[in-house]
Amino acid sequence: MNAVSLKGVSKQFNAGVTALDGIDLDVEPGEFVSLIGPSGCGKSTLLRIIGDLTKPTAGTVQVNGKPAERARRDHEYGIVFQDAVLYDWRTVAKNISLPLELLRWSRTRRNARVKDMMELVELTGFESHHPWQLSGGMQQRVSIARALSFSPTLLLMDEPFGALDEMTRERLNSELLRIWQETSSTVVFVTHSIPEAVFLSTRVVVMSARPGRVAGLVDVDLPQPRTSATREEPRFFELVTRVREQLAAAGAPLGETQEPALVEEPL
Amino acid sequence: MSAIAVEPSRRGIVGALPRAAARALLLPLGLAALWGLWEGYRWLGIRGHWTWPFKVNDTNMPHLSKIWHAFGQPLQPDGPPLRHYLWHYALFTGKEALAGFALGAVIGFLLAVVLAHSTLLRRGLLPYIVVSQTVPILAIAPMVVLGLGTKGVNPWVAVAVIAAYLTFFPVAINTLRGLHSPEPRALELMRSYAAGRWKILWRLRVPASLPYVFSALKISATASVIGAIIGETPASLQGGLGYAIVNFNQYYSTQPANLWATIIACALLGITFFLAVVLLERLVLKRAPEHVA
Known about the structure:
Largest interface: A-B, 39 and 35 residues
Order of helices and strands of chain B: HHHHHHHHHH
Oligomer: heterodimer
Number of strands of chain B: 0
Radius of gyration of chain A: 18 Å
Structural class of chain B: mainly alpha
Number of strands of chain A: 10
CATH superfamily of the largest domain in chain B: MetI-like
Shape of chain B: globular
């Protein structure tokens, strides 16, 4: 059974813009798949379709063998956005236990899990801090801990390190790989950084812009575990070049702009 | 890990002490400045025979010392001093205002919750809620008092209803805004957890709205005192500050200081209400410093 299975997924917005067109993609359990493409290729939209945060216009979406909506209701995935989206009025520990409260876990069980999560993301000692007292990188770790707190098998990440500086980003990349291996989860990761996609992934999905289509797949055969030395291996550069060429072949314009926030009616 | 550090605390012990001293000095300095302005204006006005915007004389602007003195003067020979009456008037009006404030805050909050969940109701009801505030309170107050009076309701409760009428509006409008304040991502996060409306309301919308609610409560706190004072007047209700104002108005030409002393009592009551809300906010609200109004 695939962790994620997309068949003929298309998305059109009201203005007649075709964001995604005929996406077929299967993600196996344990994979780390990155979606990369130019701004406006609909990669974030695709991630939200997998999470049932927006509905596709056509096609079917299955997560762990269930329709996307069922999977969302069954808490099959955790999600991390570009902004940490922590609740200001909650402490770090309370932010992490938010999904556990919604799942009606008992207090003792919640506390034990929060403790584990704090260790996993190496934030022990910051339990009673409030989000605004943390740096951007720390906030994003909290966000990852929150997404993993209820042990979903699938982790959806929407440019989670996009707003961080390069050094923090590389460190969190390594941490994410460690967490991915410790929790043996499946990750679908949206980025527009080619080195980040190659460093993290077992497979990179290259997308073309408007309408968003799968332009190519690159298997990343770099050995695990990956370290900062991995970034200096010739094979790493070969793969970066492969992805770059596929992006260019897909007609990706150079330069980056923010994708428009396409959000459904909030209430 | 080393590059990821927590922001240092903004205030050290060293900086805190002079700051506290400055704060402690601020109140007497402010009062002294007010005294200087009053007496200065008075002195210049009497000297220059100013008639605009009003004639400056002992009746219109008594010496502040006289007003202060009035607090201690008995109203009737051998009776208790004025401050004794004002204290009890303030307690009475304070009771009305507090009941009205609580009633108005609850109604305003509940109204906002209902309106936040229905675009139809929001479109349909909001204009009438706005219109309700354009109706002069002086015109409505007697109707409320008489109407509730025939139902056997205690007059002070009727005055509290009038205070609530002034209170609910800012709370409703601000809370509504606060309930809509969470950013789209925060709502998507809740959706990803398959949280229903109630859970989203209690775990996201209501906590997010609290800074807005407290801004409104600060406005409402003073408005409820004004509402109670104004409500007493057409209700011909005795025993409160509104009654005292009407009463002392009649003796203004001979004893202006009594009315001024009553005005000060009203102001003190309003300030007390305001400070109570500020204190509550400090206790309840844990927010990033830049998000606290």
